[in-house]
């Protein structure tokens, strides 16, 4: 999955980076998507926890190979009693070492369960890594969109500011009333309010991105990339096939192997183990010695671990149901994300191809005509507002496109190859 994760990071980076940025160093204090992804992976506490869990599972795997320790026993019999056994004169001293021998494949099942647990932990780590990449790319897209919104509103405010001399000139010439200056100032101040909100939104997204890359406060002033680069997504069936290879689904293979091994261990537990011992006994009364040999086997009359076996069987059977739950949920999420991606792509494309050119042409025409006295200020402001609304709607669609793209790539676990026919 490392190869797919690198492909995901590269593809999303290429989707947002302009062509010139692929061969040029980023400006100072500008964070690129590839930098954000790399730093997010390095700083993610979720991945740190996943790495620790893999090591913990490896420790349990090491422990699973250990054999039972031998037991050393020391006994004193026929001592501290009465009459001839009052002291230690008739004492019998025994020193014995015993060893438990596991039967029924207990050790092998224990090792198999621990090995499968390590595999499951690694799949969980791969799924977590995809989530980190997708979340970081999504937040980066929102930050890039908020940055673009700020630039758009700054242009709008600057454009309105440039109207002031023209308004004053018309008033001085008697072509307009002084109320038009107040109306123009009102439109400018409203645009400044929207600009302030947009800046606050960018600061919020920048701070969120900083947290994801491990910074308490953002060390970057801007994010790099061109959010206007979009492309048609591939067919849904192809995405769905890739989604079913997501670590969130494939991990159940390791989970089922682990649970089968636990079932084997539960079944092996029903087989009694043997404890064998050998020792030395000393008879103080006549100063003689003798060997001691012992062999003990539990009789499985009452406890044959029936409940443990039944529990393990049901746990194994539950794995398929859990996998189907995860599979159905993933299909639903991929379907929603895909339709959202298609909708935002179509909206951005239509706005760019049909709405924005018309709105821009209308505004330029009315602006020119206003200077010639053919249009009123209200008509000019309406045209400017329509152009601004169309531009901001395109930005919203672009943010939705790239955010959904990041989510979809996280769900499918692979990079999406988009059509390059759509140019900014």
Automatic annotation (TrEMBL):
Signal peptide stretch: 1-24
Q: Which Pfam families match?
A: OEP
Keywords, comma-separated and alphabetical: Signal
Does the record's keyword annotation contain Signal?
A: yes
The reply to whether Signal figures as a keyword in the UniProt entry is yes
- InterPro entries linked to this entry: MdtP/NodT-like, OMP_efflux
User: What's the domain of life for this entry?
Assistant: Bacteria
Quote one Gene Ontology molecular function term. efflux transmembrane transporter activity
The similarity comment for this entry is:
Belongs to the outer membrane factor (OMF) (TC 1.B.17) family.
Q: What's the protein here called?
A: Cobalt-zinc-cadmium efflux system outer membrane protein
Specify the species.
Answer: Methylopila capsulata
Lineage of the organism: Bacteria, Pseudomonadati, Pseudomonadota, Alphaproteobacteria, Hyphomicrobiales
């Amino acid at each position: 999955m490392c190869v797919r994760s690198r492909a995901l990071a590269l593809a999303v980076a290429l989707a947002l980076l302009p062509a010139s940025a692929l061969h040029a160093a980023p400006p100072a204090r500008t964070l690129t998507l590839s930098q954000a992804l790399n730093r997010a992976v390095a700083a993610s506490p979720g991945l740190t926890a996943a790495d620790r869990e893999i090591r913990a599972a490896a420790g349990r795997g090491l422990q699973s190979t250990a054999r039972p320790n031998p037991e050393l026993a020391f006994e004193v019999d026929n001592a501290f009693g009465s009459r001839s056994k009052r002291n230690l004169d008739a004492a019998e001293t025994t020193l014995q070492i015993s060893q438990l021998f596991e039967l029924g494949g207990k050790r092998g099942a224990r090792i198999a369960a621990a090995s499968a647990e390590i595999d499951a932990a690694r799949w969980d780590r791969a799924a977590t890594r995809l989530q980190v990449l997708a979340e970081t790319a999504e937040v980066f897209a929102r930050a890039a969109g908020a940055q673009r919104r700020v630039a758009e509103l700054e242009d709008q405010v600057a454009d309105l500011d440039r109207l002031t001399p023209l308004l004053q000139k018309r008033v001085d010439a008697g072509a307009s009333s002084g109320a038009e200056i107040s109306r123009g100032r009102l439109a400018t101040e409203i645009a400044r309010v929207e600009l302030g909100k947009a800046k606050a939104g960018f600061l919020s997204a920048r701070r969120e991105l900083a947290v994801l890359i491990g910074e308490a406060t953002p060390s970057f002033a801007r994010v790099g990339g061109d959010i206007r680069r979009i492309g048609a997504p591939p067919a849904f069936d192809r995405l769905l096939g890739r989604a079913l290879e997501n670590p969130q689904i494939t991990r159940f293979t390791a989970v089922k192997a682990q649970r089968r091994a636990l079932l084997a261990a539960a079944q092996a537990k029903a087989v009694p183990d043997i404890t064998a011992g050998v020792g030395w006994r000393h008879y103080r009364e006549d100063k003689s010695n003798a060997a001691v040999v012992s062999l003990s086997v539990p009789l499985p009359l009452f406890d044959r671990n029936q409940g443990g076996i039944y529990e393990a069987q049901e746990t194994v059977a539950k794995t398929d149901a859990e996998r189907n739950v995860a599979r159905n949920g993933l299909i639903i999420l991929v379907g929603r994300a895909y339709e959202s991606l298609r909708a935002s792509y179509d909206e951005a494309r239509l706005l760019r191809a049909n709405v924005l050119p018309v709105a821009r042409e209308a505004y330029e025409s009315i602006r020119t005509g206003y200077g010639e006295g053919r249009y009123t200020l209200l008509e000019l402001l309406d045209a400017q507002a329509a152009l601004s609304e169309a531009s901001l709607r395109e930005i919203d669609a672009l943010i939705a496109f790239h955010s959904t793209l990041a989510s979809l790539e996280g769900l499918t676990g692979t990079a999406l190859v988009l059509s390059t026919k759509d140019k900014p």
